[in-house]
Structure formats: structure tokens, C-alpha cells
Design a protein that fits this description.
alpha/beta, Molybdenum Cofactor Biosythetic Enzyme, Chain A, 6-stranded mixed beta sheet, 264 residues, 2 domains, 5-stranded mixed β-barrel, Beta-clip, single chain
């Protein structure tokens, strides 16, 4: 059903069984493809312990490395998850050096803000080519981006779980999709009517986790506390991220917002 010169498969097509069959029927014995990227996932913080392990005062379960590993896998890449690294720059450098050049990208969580234990900043400043910046978004203001000494791209995300989720969706996921060679890298979006209003940060775009119901869609905050970057439990109820432009002072009931669907 195809003639000589017809396009059977376009570059950037995610191959499924029907595409493989079409290529075979067209007489293509081989296809040039992108392999799945291997992505190192590193959570930092001396306070982190494995989920389910007994916790001493000041310790919290490590959710970030599992969040990132699952997010990487959902993109279609291969996640390489290592145990959390304590607030020790030398220990972090050793982990990164062991994987530099052996993986296609590195994603870290934590240690990029302005606190006393910014281990990622301390480990990478002056090594390789990594820049730490303040992005006009909430959550996810502190970010780092660059390359390790061996050339591996590294994405340094903040440490609170909602910040990690939002930062991955907005900044990292599209990059990994590009690594896979895909033509479509953005999440699908819908327009939704806001059920409950909330305040927004001045001068920063806001990404509010929301639950969607009905048709046409209605959006309500997934967590009662709003966009607080520590409100991890509310992520389980989120269908997407409502995008609030930086020039909006407040969201009120009845407003219509664009929502990035994260459940598709």
C-alpha cells in the first residue's frame, strides 16, 4: 500500500509494533534509532533514610530518589538509582565521578539552595561547567544545570518533593524526551475552570498541582496547603499542574487556567 518514495516512518516516531511491521513490509532490514538514555538519580541529605526504616529525630524517608527514578522510567529512559548521599561534598563527588561518562545524564535532588548544607553546590562549584541560578518559578526557584568534568549533562533540582516533581516536569522531562529522539516533548494541556482560588508569588510563574474532575474540566488544588513544596502526599491526588503566569497576583474561583496533564 506504499509506493517507492513514500514516507513510511518519520524521524522522531516512537516505535510500536505497527511501526516495526510497516518498516519490515517496506523492506527496511534495519532502522536507525535512539537507545533509551541511562539517567543517574541522586538524592542528597544526611537526614534521609530508606522508606520503612526506623527514624531517629530529624530523619525523614527518602522519597526524592524514588520519585525521580519513577519519573525517569515513565519518560522511557533507564533510571540508575543510588542510595542517598550525605551532606559530604567529597562523597558526592565520588558518586558522580564513578558514573560520569557511564550514563547519559545525572539528576540530583537537594543541596542547591542557600542553606548551610548545600552539598551539590559545594561539590560542583568550580568543577566541570555547572551554573546555579534562581528561576522565576514556584516551586523550584533554585536550580543548577551544566556538565560534569567528563561531559555528562547534570540537572540539579531543589530538595523538597513538590519542587522536585515540578522541576522534573518543567525542565528535565522535555530534555530527556529530546535525548530519546522524540518529536513531541511537551505534556498535553487542557483549559480548566478553577474551583478554589489561591495566592500566587509576585513575579514568578506558579505550577500548582491540581486534581481535575468533570467535562469541561474543573481544577482544584490537590493539597489543602496549596503549592507548599513539602506537601508530598498531595502529589498522589494531582492530575496535572495548573500554570499561573508571573503577572497574575491571585487566582480566584472561576478563572480559567492551562493545566499540564501529568497523568497522560
Amino acid at each position: 500500500d506504499a509506493r517507492a518514495g513514500d514516507l513510511v516512518l518519520a524521524a522522531g516516531t516512537l516505535l510500536a509494533e505497527r511501526h516495526v511491521a510497516a518498516a519490515a513490509a517496506a523492506g527496511a532490514g534495519t532502522l536507525r534509532v535512539h537507545r533509551r538514555p541511562r539517567v543517574l538519580v541522586v538524592a542528597t541529605g544526611s537526614e534521609l533514610v530508606p522508606p520503612g526504616a526506623p527514624r531517629a529525630r530529624g530523619q525523614i524517608p527518602d522519597s526524592n530518589s524514588y520519585l525521580l527514578a519513577a519519573a525517569v522510567a515513565a519518560v522511557g529512559a533507564e533510571a540508575v538509582r543510588v542510595p542517598p548521599v550525605p551532606d559530604d561534598p567529597e562523597a558526592l563527588r565520588a558518586v558522580l565521578a564513578a558514573h560520569d561518562g557511564a550514563v547519559d545524564a545525572v539528576v540530583t535532588a537537594g543541596g542547591v539552595s542557600v542553606g548551610a548544607y548545600d552539598v551539590v553546590k559545594a561539590a560542583l562549584t568550580g568543577r566541570g561547567d555547572v551554573e546555579f541560578v534562581a528561576v522565576a518559578m514556584q516551586p523550584g526557584k533554585p536550580q543548577g544545570l551544566g556538565r560534569l568534568p567528563g561531559g555528562t549533562p547534570v540537572y540539579c533540582l531543589p530538595g523538597n518533593p513538590v519542587s522536585v516533581f515540578v522541576s522534573f516536569e518543567v525542565l528535565v522531562r522535555p530534555a530527556l524526551q529530546r535525548m530519546r529522539g522524540l518529536a513531541e516533548v511537551e505534556r498535553p494541556t487542557v483549559r480548566a475552570v478553577v474551583e478554589d482560588g489561591w495566592r500566587t508569588p509576585q513575579g514568578r510563574a506558579q505550577y500548582m498541582p491540581v486534581a481535575l474532575t468533570g467535562d469541561p474540566p474543573v481544577a482544584r488544588r490537590a493539597a489543602a496547603g496549596g503549592s507548599g513544596s513539602h506537601l508530598a502526599a498531595g502529589l498522589a491526588r494531582a492530575d496535572g499542574l495548573a500554570v499561573v503566569p508571573a503577572d497574575v497576583a491571585a487566582v480566584v474561583a472561576g478563572d480559567v487556567l492551562t493545566v499540564m496533564r501529568c497523568d497522560a
